[in-house]
Amino acid sequence: MAAVANVPLVKVSINDVEIEVPKGELIVESVKRLGLEIPIFCYHPRMKPVGMCRMCLVEVGFKQQDGSVRKMPKPQAGCTLPASEGMVVYTDTEPIHADRRGVLEFLLINHPLDCPICDRGGECPLQNNTMAYGPSTSRFIELKRHLPKAFPLSTYVTLDLERCIQCGRCVRFTEEISGDHDLAFRFRGADMQPSTFQLTDFESKFSGNVIEICPVGALTSAKYRFRARPWDLETTPSVCTVCSNGCNVWFDHRAGKFVRINGRANEAVNEEWTCDKGKFGHEHYNAADRPTQPLVRQGDGFAPTSWSGAYDPVLAAFAEGGDRVAALVGPRVSNEALFLLRRLFERAFKSARVSSNWRRTPGSGSVQGTIADVESGGPVLVFGTSLADDLPIVHLRLRKGATNAGARVVNAFSRPTEVDRFAAVSLHYRPGSELALARGLHGLLAGTGATAEAVEAETGVPADRLREAVEVLKEGGTALSSQGLYDLSDGPQIVEALAGIARATGGRSECWATGANEQGAIELGLAGEGATATLQACAEGRVKALWLVAADPFALHPDRALVERALETVEFLVVQSPVGSEALAYASVVLPTALPAEQDGTYTNCERRVQRVQPAVPPPGDGKPDWRVFSECLLRALPETPLFNPREVMEAIAAEVPAFAGCRYEALGPEGTVLGGNLLDTPDEPAMVGGQA
Amino acid sequence: MSFEVFRDVAQPIIAGFGITARRLAEQKVTVQYPDDRREQFPRTRWRHVLTRYDSGLERCIGCSLCAGACPARCIYVEASENTDQERYSPGERYAKRYEINMLRCIFCGYCQEACPTGAIVLRKDFELANYEREDFVYTKEMLLEPIRG
Predict the structure, then answer these.
(1) How much is the ipTM here?
(2) Could you tell me if A226 lies within 8 Å of chain B, comparing CB atoms?
(3) Burial state string for A502-523 with b = 16 or more CB within 10 A and e = fewer than 16
(4) Which pTM does this prediction carry?
């Protein structure tokens, strides 16, 4: 718990060292200021203390008038003890050592000690604390408690009840952080067990986090089960590229193969949480159908070739193509690759037809604040998006703002979503009436004579609810939505109406991207004419050569018939893809490329934060990073020195694209850097992702 | 043949044969390898063996503690889960792949010391020479003790 302004400081003495700490700070946090540590199980810095495990016992006393210290007769739990003036704390005395041994012996009575087969073994707080503070032998010779092992709590989480020490971290996570209240304790005493209420599936969209915060091996990952031990793993700081939040993660790998994702702390983005889509959504790194070498079409099949053997027909088909050649880019391509692709098309192919926009209608959203601003406590209108699906970390932030800072939330969506659980007002409109509702709310807030009854007639939202929503929003209400709105036929008008609402209330207007680098593509000017227009041009024969960059149009575009027609009609199709996709069957040339954690580059998240990703594992076979493919094509096509590494590409981006001015790898701190911030005056010191040298 | 030649050449040879002749009666230290093999000391550490329980189930549970203890990092373990249809070891976990790179192994015996079930033991088979480098990577099938009985 960080120090808050206006909190008076109090003098406490910890192990006879006097320090000043904010009044009310928990002793378990205060000792960290001296570099000391109190062993903990149930305490978690981001959750409320409960004092369940008794591991953090300390001796506490108060200074008397004559200068002596009068200790309390019993030890106190450091995690529930707020600092007060004159408090004297001892963390390292003989009675405390005896207490810790006792607590650990007690916790281990029913713990099965199956560490050799436990996935937590090697990184287990119970193991570590037992090694550091516990008894070396057990006196317990009676029969231990026996309960189900490997109980599948959900597709992702496996529960081993024997190992549970009843600390309540998982239960409190679902109550305090994710807010879905999925888990609870059943029964009492030695029978106490965390579970869902009706023994249903643990369906939380953030369930993976309980695996990481469980201090024993009771909650383990079903996907990581028995796949490796911690000492077998290498880990690389990375950024999740499943959605646009850009969560910082640890990318754990073994012998060049991806193994698991763990959350990495970044206070500006994900704090330390991950969503299930990100945590369990990286299995495609190990997919068996990934292309491993360049292929060229030969009759009905493909012939493997070398990279130069693949470049020659590609460059021949695209050279000087003008408007008759086009590229479509997927949402997970790095800034560097996007920039070089645009340069390749502009300079070598004389074409501006590079598009990253797969939405039905064009639009570039709106970013005015940051993810951290969402929890500031101001009223928020969530419009037309299921936040926990589209922007999961923003959902957690908004919930934190609603529960901790008293933010009042209005949730407008056609069906119930997770936001309804903490929303002050929920507006469930008829599907298709988004524009009417946005314009109606704008009219009610701006006082332009619109009536709630008229809006009710159009949208099906009760007029009373609308008036309540207006009451909540009128003071500084921020309009928060995702660019998924552009998938609606009247998307741009809805976003415009939402901007009007923000103007009327004096709040911010946020319409955030959902693809990993969708925002980066917008900043780099690659939104283009849109995939639909390009595909239509292909289908009508106006485009003779199409380049798909890490994009599977069958997955990204809703109109399957159009995609099929376009890919069948276009004369020359380059499929540059890190994974197998349906589009490969139509390809003239297949170029195998690397996934995000297999290459160097930067990603721009939904709040325009540029974060660096480092290569963790090598791409399979001859796969190359996307930026290198474009760099090599530029080298062949143009008589100019190409950019040979991503760092140089970023320098070129900073020089050419105004939004990225001042953006250099050296200037990206461990938390990444928001574009347009104080990039220009950052010192010239080397900084790496994750603070590693 | 002069006296000097007899003294300096023939006499030492005869003396040498004499020593040999006397030793012929004593017990021999060398053995006729490979026809004969000397018994190894009881705690000799040579080739690894993955042992089984009397029931025939593997002792190894794929915990990878041997790989963690190995100073030469020559052990690779990949674990998997037992099912009731396909059971290799008692309990939940077994080693799907277990490989030791004998070229790297320094026969320190730390793996044996780390093993919580006594699965990996270093036994007395010392004839580990081979022709191809690849053949020195011992797989689980090579290391597992045959089912007795």
Answers:
(1) 0.84
(2) yes
(3) bebbebbbbbbbbbbbbbbbbb
(4) 0.91
